[in-house]
């Protein structure tokens, strides 16, 4: 079954974003609101905590029949039987991850240029995370904010491919329709949007996800 990338939640465990709430409860709420895929992203916890948290998250995502991907860490994905991984340009190479993971595992790759996108497609990636779309406080050490122009350049260059595509970076309720539907992405559109703070840091993560799900399904007036 093809993966539904339309409302892709990326987690963040930093206290400022979680505001004292439990990550698993926040993710559960977001899933109730309609998130279609979850990536567990945690750059600071040690391996024991990563595995324990990923296990809990997996129990939750399984309740909703939604895939769980692990950011950076193929070993953690294997340890908990997650559905796949998301790898950046500096993480384990695609070929190595492919060898280690089950045959049907989902592998997504972060890309910020046409060259990186083309390479990921040639390798056999299931989807591309394209960004950083808009500058965001959630990831300040990003090497590249590519904007709508950079995203458009990638989508145009790969329009013959059936690879999945999600944009990431600074996506919120106000810009999500523009991001998904704007005429700048004429040939190959995005399959979804990847969101951190607009859901995880939201006062009501379920309501936020519901609002995104509704906006995603609705072509905007200006389209
Ligand atoms: N990669 C590029 S931008 C980003 C990541 C992980 C963070 C996006 O966070 P937000 O809060 O949705 O802008
Ligand atoms: Mg990474």
UniProtKB/TrEMBL annotation:
Signal peptide (UniProt feature, chain positions): none
Domain Thiamine phosphate synthase/TenI: 7-199
Domain of life: Eukaryota
Family that this chain belongs to: In the N-terminal section; belongs to the thiamine-phosphate synthase family.
Free-text function comment from the UniProt entry: Condenses 4-methyl-5-(beta-hydroxyethyl)thiazole monophosphate (THZ-P) and 2-methyl-4-amino-5-hydroxymethyl pyrimidine pyrophosphate (HMP-PP) to form thiamine monophosphate (TMP).
Protein name: Thiamine phosphate synthase/TenI domain-containing protein
Naturally occurring in which organism (per UniProt): Penicillium canariense
High-level lineage: Eukaryota, Fungi, Dikarya, Ascomycota, Pezizomycotina
Residues of the full protein shown: 1 to 223 of 517
